[in-house]
Amino acid sequence: MEPTTTNIEKQTAAGVDVTTYDALVIGGGIGGEEAALNLANMGYSVIMVEKDYSIGGKMVHLSKVFPTLDCSACITTPKMSETIRHPNIEILTYSEVRGIEKDGKIFNTSIVKKPRYVIEADCTGCQLCEQACPVVVQDQYQYDLVGRKAAYIPFSVAAPRVAAIDIENCTLCGACERVCPPNCIDFTMKEEVIDVIVKSVIIASGFELFDAKKIPQYGFGKYKNVIHAMQMERQLVPTRPYNTVLRPKDGKMPDNIAYVLCTGSRDKTIGNPICSQVCCMYSIKQAQLIMGALPMADVTIYYMDIRAYGKGFHEFYIQTKNMGVEFVKGKIAKIDEKDDGDLVLHYEDIENGGAPKTATYDMVVLAVGVLPQNNIPELFKNEVLELDEFNYVKQTDKLVNPGMTTIDGVFVAGTSSGPMDIPDTILSAGSASAETASYLRRL
Amino acid sequence: MKQKIGVYICQCGSNISDYVDVDKVLDSVKDLEGVSLVKITMFSCSDSTQNEMVDDIKNEDLDGLVVASCSPKLHLPTFRNVAIRGGLNPYNYVQVNIREQGSWAHSDNPKKATEKAIQLVKAGIERTKYSNALEKTVIPSEKAVAVIGAGIAGMKAAIELADMGLSVYLIEKDFFVGGRITQWEDLCTVEELASDTVTRLYDEVKSKDNLTLFLGATAENMSGSVGNFKLTINIRPRYIKSDFNKDKIEELTGKCKTLTPNEFDFGLTKRKIVFKTYPGALPDIPVVDIKNAGDDINIINEFKDHLDLDRKDESITVDIGSVILATGSDPYTPKVGELGYKEIDNVVTFQEFKRIIELSPNGKLKYNGKDIKSVGYIYCVGSCQAEGNMYCSRFCCTCAISTSLSINKRFEKIRFYHVYKHIRTYGKQEVLYDQAGRQGDIFFKFDEDEEPVVSMVDGEGTITFNDLLTDGEEISVSPDLIVLVTGMVPRDDYKRVAEVFKAPIGRDKFFNEAHPKLRPVETVIDGIMIAGASQGPKSISESTKSALSAASKADALLHKGEIELEPTLAMIDTSLCEGSGLCIQACPFNAITMIDAGGKKLAQVEKSACKGCGWCLAVCPHDAIELAGYTNNEMEGMIESLITV
Ligand SMILES: Cc1cc2nc3c(=O)[nH]c(=O)nc-3n(C[C@H](O)[C@H](O)[C@H](O)COP(=O)(O)OP(=O)(O)OC[C@H]3O[C@@H](n4cnc5c(N)ncnc54)[C@H](O)[C@@H]3O)c2cc1C
Ligand code: SF4
Ligand code: SF4
Ligand code: SF4
Prior knowledge:
The complex is a heterodimer of chains A (443) and B (645).
Chain A: E1 19-21, E2 23-26, H1 30-41, E3 46-49, E4 64-65, E5 70-71, H2 72-85, E6 89-92, E7 95-103, E8 106-113, H3 128-132, E9 136-138, E10 147-149, E11 151-152, E12 164-165, H4 175-179, E13 192-198, E14 201-203, E15 207-209, E16 226-228, H5 229-236, E17 256-263, H6 279-293, E18 298-303, H7 313-322, E19 326-329, E20 332-337, E21 343-349, E22 355-361, E23 363-368, E24 370-372, E25 410-412, H8 422-442
Parallel strand pairs in A: 1-13, 2-3, 2-14, 3-6, 14-25, 16-23, 17-18, 17-23, 18-19
Antiparallel strand pairs in A: 4-5, 7-8, 8-13, 9-10, 11-12, 15-24, 20-21, 21-22
Helix pairs in contact in A: 1-2, 1-8, 5-6, 6-7
Chain B: E1 5-10, H1 22-29, E2 35-41, H2 47-59, E3 64-69, H3 72-86, E4 93-97, H4 99-103, H5 110-130, E5 137-140, E6 144-148, H6 152-163, E7 167-171, H7 181-184, H8 194-207, E8 211-214, E9 217-225, E10 228-235, H9 246-255, E11 260-261, E12 270-271, E13 274-275, E14 287-288, H10 296-302, E15 314-320, E16 322-325, E17 329-331, E18 347-349, H11 350-359, E19 366-367, E20 370-371, E21 374-381, H12 396-410, E22 415-420, H13 430-438, E23 442-445, E24 453-457, E25 460-467, E26 473-477, E27 481-486, E28 488-490, H14 494-501, E29 528-530, H15 540-558, E30 562-565, E31 570-572, H16 582-586, E32 592-597, E33 600-605, H17 615-619, E34 625-627, H18 632-643
Helix pairs in contact in B: 1-5, 2-3, 5-18, 6-8, 6-15, 12-13
The site of flavin-adenine dinucleotide has 37 residues of chain A, from helix 1, strand 7, strand 15, helix 5 and helix 6.
């Protein structure tokens, strides 16, 4: 089948008014964006479904990226923008796929658009509602480091940059409604079900972060100065909330910081035996950024092995070592908190006879691993999407057709198929889009 | 001259505003002539700010646009699109770089960084004033791609491109397809054998009508530009006809006596001069290695009716729109004496080890006629070096460990010693590391700055090192075979290939991508893509992914059958041109010709060949050439504003 070369093809299938797209992309992270853009640039029509308020995935929330130290938002916002405005791509944010049913060569797909209580087309992103709203809760986009309102723009570079009402925390006081200039706040908004026909599907739903609370001996959630790596990312972004790195308990600038690698990875006891592939490198990156933000601070990285395997990674690791970051091969047994909030690490010093030792730090960062999103198979109603032994989407022909899954016409891109960094996600998405394009051609 | 210019000064989160006082920049330019609006933005590239600019252009009727932000390499296309969406010609947009050339370069001196930013923004405004609206030219382009190298990446890219409907020329230097993986056969992390993978791909390659495979072929020369390249290919003769008589060739092979080292087995075996690299090599047609024939030349002549002996090198030229380089990599070859290589009998490289496994009889791992019961790996040979190859070769840890597991399914129990610098079984491969430990393999770690020593001790090849896992204790092991886990290096002819295609080379000498994060398969040369291990060490699956990505980029570029050319081209003012011809000599792209216009000789620029490099304008004695988008007015305006403080 030739690609549709113009805008979204409004086909009418079997007399019912249902829009047909060449491809459905589930997830609008960097993987989904790359896959959608490739297909769109090849002339295919795409519908992208993103469960969050904005596309951009994890990458838009990162500080800088290893090993180039490019500002992550700066290099990802253009991709987001390109995706949003591509004439061949339609995007549904704050939406979820409810069901996909294969019917011969097509997939009947039902999508639910959840109410954000703000009319997307009318909102100008003026943030007046945000100022007016009296409710303050923790901001999930800042990984709870700071607060936000119940009426809010998700984050500064969100795309679309449209407000949303967090209805769970909203007191229905109506303050936002009164100040909104275009009058776009609508508390009567309901869930909307949108049915479409797609000819192929790309799963790009990404990964989840390991919940550090599952290792109670590290004290995350209990000891305030133990944070996870995504929280450190937020402290280091160009728009950083504190404008420097601070430890949460008392707002003190830390003099020494420890990284605990492999938190929630390579650990059979918590059910995740594999390596997360990115945490060594992001920790090394953060260590460099911390040295920039707090020139006097010492950073120590406790590791099992340093996975500096990609292009330019080993060089970056050596550079970081030469900058004075200390690397200690040792597994952390537990962390204790002192009265002043300092943290005592108990570890086995492998390279020095394996003796149990302790060391005290102002702040500890847990290099949490990545985990699969394993609710994707449920979306397929009459076909079986198999997962591999680690609960990632199973690649049935890894060597020759890396995007292929157990369902003909369904492909996988990015971290849905396993842990990977951004360049590998781009390659995986590129490959999924090429495989999708030739599948569509063969239809 | 533009009179209503909109100027946006970007904070880039704080990447810029940490060092450049953006308010001061705003104050210094807001009252300049021609400026009708100045704003400070948090992230100019964010979708919402883009929308705001679009609205400003429309509502304020702006006639020029300046964004002072990052390098144009990053966002020139972004903001040109903003201009277009606002209804402005994209060439009335000027990007000023106050990040890479401002805040980042002068983070030690915010005051001066601010002053520099002000000057740069003023110059940018000046340039915008004199900027002209330009239109891109659209020229037809070839719906054809050349893929260089028929390893796994090249074959996969070629198949996919053919499926997408493009014509494909798959050009392989060797006389057989499959590249490196055919040498490994037993592949890491999957059950499949390399010969099966290659057969699958080869069958697909053969089944595509729009895919032409050239074997024994090398790319010699390329001219033109994206969309319209001309590529000259040299094809060496195989000396055996494709409709050859199998029995006769077998008879010939039987009679041949001369033996030469078999490259395929890294010289571990010898081959005849009529040969296939390995029994299952594809296509199933032998090659005659005439150069090394020696005395066998007489036998060959006896069989000349069955051969194609008169065939000479052939040169053909194809028209293509884009190229995918998938030339792969070489294994690192240790220097003689490096860790005992070539000096101590039982020291081999990992790649040689893979051949030793394939050449061993069933049930017994043998080398030089001796049974191998224990193997000692030394990792990171030729990789992660303090000087030289600083990069990690990525595949070797996983493949070495995977081999130690699979080997024990094939042969009697073999004991493995892993003497490592790093173990990098990233991702799901981690479970192999765990399995190797459980199988009883023994791991030792040596210090990054203290390589092990391989020497003869009591007549046995011995590895000696300080083991960090046992408090730095000195340990010696003398396994039956010492395997140097050698990494990947670029192909020996990478320089020549790079030269033909003008492909950029990185510090690690692999082909360099346009952006390591977001554009890993494109290069800065439009239309030239890179795939597989030619871009950097990769596993098979990773190579396939990059090959497919490159295919989708090539298709996006070419499927329309036309391509847009940048309008920043040399323009000749015929009223000033005196036909000196100096420009013709200066142009590196042969884009200028001399025409006869009613008796007067005039230079003329061929748009599709001109790259806008500007060499010609520098040499014209009559100032008759200008570069669109960089006219004298624009440049002089900029210089003027830069020198007036
Ligand atoms: C702390 C940290 C630092 C990192 N630093 C770097 C770095 O410096 N360099 C680097 O290369 N990599 C880094 N990474 C890795 C990088 O984040 C990932 O490689 C990348 O984000 C993967 O992109 P993705 O598109 O596959 O997944 P994601 O970014 O997770 O995107 C998936 C998207 O899908 C959406 N989604 C999920 N489920 C559904 C559903 N059912 N329906 C619809 N939408 C859905 C999600 O909301 C999300 O928007 C880092 C990771 C972490 C955790
Ligand atoms: S109605 Fe809800 S969202 Fe609006 S201002 Fe009140 S609490 Fe905030
Ligand atoms: S990447 Fe590093 S920190 Fe992350 S799981 Fe692997 S070894 Fe551990
Ligand atoms: S993959 Fe392993 S052996 Fe190979 S270079 Fe990297 S660390 Fe060394």
